[in-house]
């Protein structure tokens, strides 16, 4: 690799990583199906629309199916937020995007994972890009 090309590559990588924004933590702990939070805990149905206030959250439309991956353990006086992704043929562009939403806007329909683990959240749980 030539020297100028290497510099351009490094500048490009720095530019990409500079768009990551550190956001406030929503909770110190979360409940997951495994230590990596890779298993779906449950399937829920959206009871109401929810518009994401920032990049940590996902938009949800009433009637959408939501895969729940983790549940934040709320601090005293804090809201209860879960993490998941939506599934709907009408909103294919949102499928696969994982983010937080208030637990109050969904109703759990089916639990897939009864055994859960409580693990600490990290700053990476709340980064935005």
From TrEMBL:
Alphabetical list of SUPFAM superfamilies matching this protein: SH3-domain (SSF50044)
Domain of life: Eukaryota
Annotated signal peptide: 1-19
One GO term (biological process): cartilage condensation
Pfam families linked to this entry: SH3_2 (PF07653)
Keywords attached to this entry: SH3 domain, Signal
Domain named SH3: residues: 39-111
Protein name as catalogued: Otoraplin-like
Provenance organism: Scomber scombrus (Atlantic mackerel)
